[in-house]
Amino acid sequence: MTQAQATCTADPDFIASSERQGFSSRLGFVLAAAGSAVGLGNIWGFPTQVAQNGGAAFILMYLVMVAILAYPMLVAELTIGRMSKKNPMDALMSLSDKPHWKLIGKISGVTGILVVSLILSFYGIVSGWLMAFMGEPVARLAGMDGFADWLVGFSVSRNLITMAVFMVLTVLIVRSGVTDGVERWSKRLMPSLFILLMALAGYIATLPGAEEGLRMYFVPDLSKIFDPSLMVSAMGQAFFSLSLGTCAIMAYGSYLSQEENISSIAGMVAGLDTGVAILAGILIIPAMTIAQANGVEIYAADGSLLSSDALVFSVLPSLFHSMGDLGEYVAFAFFTLLTIAALTSSISMLEAPVNTACEKLNQPRGRMALLVGASIALISTIIILNFGALFGFVITLTTVYAQPMLALVFGLLLMWVASRNKVLQELKSGNPDMEQGLFWKIWPWYVKFVCPVLMLAVFLG
To answer: TM segments (predicted)?
Structure first.
C-alpha cells in the first residue's frame, strides 16, 4: 500500500492508517452501493420517464436495459475497483503494463471523475431544492409564511444557499472516511428511505383517483415499447440510476472484501435499485392522477407532460396543499424521502473524486473532501448563474450520453485489455466455483462483444 492510500483513508484528524479502509460488512457495502444507485434517478427521474414514455411500456424497456446492459457493466466496474484496490484512475491504468493502454486508462479515469463531478454539480442544485421544499411545510406550520414563500420560490439566492447547505452535508459525511462516514450513514439513511417510501406509497394508494394512475403504471402501451427515443431514455435512466460510468461504483468496489461474490453483490444492488424505482413509481404516478382529478394540469393538449423536469416541485406540492393541514405533514415526509435519497447518492459521487485526489496528491481525506466539495460547489454556482443555458445541457451531456459511453469503455478495457485469467481469479476469490458456472461462460464474451453492439444500436436508432 502506498503512503497516499494510507493518508487518504485516515480519519479527519489526519492520522494515517496502517491499511486501506474497507466496508466492515456485506450489509454495509450493499446498503452503500444501493444508496449510490438509489437517488433522484429513482424517485424523481424514473416516474417522470414513465409518465412521459407510455407508462408501463417504459418500465418493461427499463427492466430489459437493466438486465442486458446495466447489470453486466455493474459487475465490470466492481471488478475493476476490487481488482486494483486503488482509486478509479489508477485502477483503470493498472489493467495493463503497456504505456498506450495506461494512457487510455488514465484518460478514461480522468473523464469519469469529471463526469461524476459535473453530475454532482447539478445534483447538488436539485437536492438543495428538495431541502427547501422539505422546510416549507415546517415554516408554514410555524407561521413563517414569508420564509416559506422564499423556500419554494425560484431565486438565485435560494438556489445558492440551499445548494451550499446540501454540499456541506455531503462533505461532512465523506470526510469522515469509508467506515465511519459512508458506511455508517448508509446504514442509517437507507432503512429510513425504505420505510418512508413504503408508508407514503401505501397512503397515496388509498386516495380517490389513485386507481387510474396504477392502471397507467402497470398496463403498457405496446405501440411505444420499441420507440427509439424510449429505448435511449430507458438505457440512460438505467445507467444513471445505477451510477454507472461515473467511477462511483468503481471506487466503492475498491473497498469491497475479497471474500464477497461480485456477481451476487451486483445482483443485490441492481435488485434493490430497481425495486425502489418501481416502488417510487407506485407513489408518484397515482399522486399525479390524484392531482389531475383535483384540477391540477399535468399534461398538455398534445399529451406531453407539463414541467417534466419540475414534476415533484409543481404537481405534487399542489396535491399536498389541497389536503389542508394534513398535506403539510405529507409534504414534509415526501421531501424528506427525496432528500435522503439524494444524500445517499451524493456521498458516493463525492467519494470517487475525493478518493482519487487524496491518493494522487498524497493529501489527507478531510482536506481533499473540503477542496473537491468546494470546487464542485463552484461549478454549481456557475450553473445557477447561467441556469437557462447550462442546467439542461449538463444533465443531458452527462446522464444521457457520457454515462453509458464511459460504462462501455470501462467494460471494454476490462475485457479487452486486462488479462482474462486475472479477471477470473478476482471473481473466484469470492466464488471458487466461478469458472464452472454459467455466469463466467457468458459474461466475459457478452461484455466484450454483445454490449457494445446493443448500445451502439440503441444510439444509432
So the answer is: 27-46, 58-80, 103-130, 150-173, 193-210, 230-253, 265-285, 329-350, 370-395, 401-418, 438-460
* Cell digits of residue 138: 415546517
Of 447, 415, 406, 34, the closest CA to residue 236 belongs to: 406
CATH number at residue 434: 1.10.4160
Give the separation between CA 198 and CA 176, rounded to whole angstroms: 30
Answer yes or no: are the C-beta atoms of 412 and 77 closer than 8 Å.
no
Can you tell me the distance from the alpha carbon of 283 to that of 59, in angstroms, rounded to the nearest whole number? 15
Instruction: Indicate the range of 171-185, 312-326, 434-448 predicted with least confidence.
Output: 312-326
**Structural domain count of the chain:** 1
Residue 419, class by beta-carbon neighbours within 10 Å (0-12 exposed, 13-18 middle, 19+ buried)? Answer: exposed
The answer to the question of residue 414 being in a domain is yes
Q: Is the pLDDT of residue 447 over 70?
A: yes
For residue 96, being part of any structural domain is answered with yes
User: Which of 217-226, 379-388, 398-407 is predicted least confidently?
Assistant: 217-226
pLDDT at position 194, please? 83
- As a whole number, mean pLDDT of residues 365-390 equals 96
C-alpha torsion sign, points 128, 134, 135, 136: positive
- Hey, how many other C-beta atoms are within 10 angstroms of the C-beta on 337? 23
State the Cα–Cα distance between residues 150 and 169, nearest whole angstrom: 21
Q: Assess if residue 6 is contained within a domain.
A: no
